Amino acid sequence: MIIYHADDYGISINASKEILSLVQQGKLSGISVIPNMSCFADCIDLLLPVMKERPALTVALHLNFFEGHCCADPSEIPLLIDENGYFKCSWMYFFKSSYTSVRNELRKQLSTEIQAQIQKLYHAMPSNYVLCLDSHQHSHMIPVVWDALRDVVLWNHYPVQYIRISREPLAPYLSTPALYHTYPPVNLIKNVIIQFCTWYTNRHPIIPMKGNYYLWGLIMGGSMDADRINRLMDKFQKYGQDPDTLELLFHPGIILPEELSPEYNNPDFKAAETSPKRQKEYESLMKL
């Protein structure tokens, strides 16, 4: 099965409206909802009628530990937030902490925040909602975050339909040398590190998975353009043959300048979320 998915629903009103436009035009199989931004309630109000119109739409929780305000009681998660309750940690902090003495306490605090984010989405969704899980920057693949997520799901007996496994095949890229120069080196490094994390998640499963799960959108992350997708599709298609799943991942919603506020407290993320590249990803989905 090949699915088309958009992350970052709920990052802003405008971004969410753009993602919903793609849903209503049949361009997306699923979306992921960020639960901790101030526009969450308004974005849910926009989403619920569309979910009724399109019951097959997958709606996942997009766990977020990098920007915006926490959902848990700030006093319970001091490792994760600053004095204003905004997230302060980096991806590499979580990764490095997976192998240091702070791991156990960090795991506990992450579990507290994960539980709060899950409950926030649950309370906003229809009674028949089945939980699906992924995360901002694929952070749930980091060993300490994965363990915290595993704790929450198993302790609370949450029925989970799927958890994104951010495993991106390298073979299609390696066999297309004409495109080598188009891939940001940082995305190649990200792919390798997450492949390493996949080894850990496979050894410590949270739910049974039917078939293998593959992602397309790491090395081309932030620039999923239609031209390169069309050139690589023949090589990626085999990863979406039943019972396996191939997820094409997009970020097609842009934050408008007038929507920016102190909660967008991570400069790198803010630059990405206001980038014209997001409009190009929207246009790519319209062409596919």
Textual characterization of the structure:
The protein is α/β, with parallel strands linked by helices. It has a single domain (2-287), classed as Alpha-Beta Barrel (TIM Barrel), CATH 3.20.20. Helix content is 42%, strand content 13%. The chain is built from 10 helices and 7 strands. Helix 1 packs parallel to helix 2 and helix 4 packs across helix 5 (143-156). The model has no long low-confidence stretch (mean pLDDT 97).
Strand order of the largest sheet: 5-4-3-2-1-7-6
Radius of gyration: 18 Å
Domain count, please report it: 1
Biggest β-sheet strands, sense, barrel: 7 strands, parallel
What class would the helix/strand composition place it in?
A: alpha/beta
Précis, in short:
The chain is an alpha/beta fold and 288 residues long. Helices cover 42% and strands 13% of the residues.
